[in-house]
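Thread: "does anyone have the structure for this chain?"

Original post by V.I.:
We have the sequence but no experimental structure in hand. Need at least a predicted one for the grant figures.
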Amino acid sequence: MKGGYAKNEIQLLSHDHPTKTICQICAIDLTSKSVTDRQSHYEDHFAHAPEASGSSHHAPTASKATDNTNAAYSKPISKSRKPPSFGFIPTVPIEKQNIFWHPSLASEPPPNFSPGLIPVLKKALTKSHEKGLTQKAWLASEHSVHVNAEQWDRKWGCGYRNYLMVCAALMSQQLQPMYFPLLDTPTSPGIRNLQEVLEEAWRNGFDEEGAEQLDHNLLGTRKWIGTADLYVAFAYRGIPANLADFNDLRQGVEPLVQWIYNYFAVGESQPKGATVGEALRGARSVVVTDKPPIILQHDGHSRTVVGCERVKNGSINLLIFDPSRKVPENIRVAGLHHHNPGGANQTISTSSKVLHKMMHPVETIKSKKRKSTEPEPKHAAPKRKRPSNQGAKDENDVIVIDSDSEDDANPPSGPSKSERHDDPDFGTVLNAFRVSAKQLKKNKYQILYFPLSDPLTEQEKLRRRVVTSERIA
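Reply from O.Q.:
Generated one for you, tokens below.
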């Protein structure tokens, strides 16, 4: 605002002192407080600040009709208000800001990365189905990973953590192997690296409006980012992603829930020429799809949706990885056992090492040359076996691939899964991730989803410099 401060703006005061640290908002002496306490003090100011009027991020404009569809498109609502983003990231080493892991790596996951949860959810949903509580459920790719925020980014890092969750899934899938190098080079995903990608995209003409709202300065700050910003980051790296807006849900969240249900459940039928096993997959009560997770944002927070469940009364629940919530330890341990059946003290299984090699596009291309020249259906599932519910079979039947390694014929020996750990109660598992329609109380939502289409050409990337989204409701 020119010429003064509006009544609902926070005014920064000038309190310079050679030996003291003074709060620039309330003038309290913060010298005796730790860096963390000072950060919390400032965050308290912004958390209780009145919402500024007219500060929506990417506010909707008049929609423009397309030639071949009745859907409307507009600039998306990424944030409904400008985020309280005072200050910079506290003294956290850059290496820690860029910690990243994905399931095809042969190393152990960091403490805040939890793989193997899709098989855990599948087992819990199957138990719920057997008890007549769940009619049917659909889950995202088995490579989906939960990533929770840490102490230093817990109040502003949700957008970044959702980005890492999606990258972990996209870099481990096989339908589009070129996604891996696009996301991994020149820098791999990370919080600080994502900030650098966005600033570089801005300098190259992407999302001028978003860049202006974030003052063209993101690197090293604690500024919130939303789904529109992630759209820019993915587009700049050549990864196709789309935005869907739900601007008016005052009559209920059914349009949102139905859209998510359609994303995971529609197209479940197998293509012509599917094998018997693939056909049977469609008849299962719990279906693990090959679809990437999606990011769901509302005012002040975003989460990663990894599936949906239809219960006995016909209503739909969402299954969500919330970066602000830590996975209960017993559930995380169960997921780790699914990811690495041999346990933390055993060498990573051959299947994991083979999968890691496959993620490199050169290895993938060589592998394809050794396979039959007969084309596969465009939307066929990748050649892997889905985990079953019978003992240790779902541990070693993760992927089917020709391999010259003798280790493939000799799976690692060891105690059975039931001997290594107790599976968590199915109700406990579902309560950790289930979100009902009644819990979705916000009026506006935005979804970022990934169609797994071919990487963007340079012309397609240029067309995405201006952020647009499809208006659903």
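V.I.: this helps a lot. The chain has a mean pLDDT of 76.
O.Q.: and Residues 117-130 form the longest helix (14 residues).
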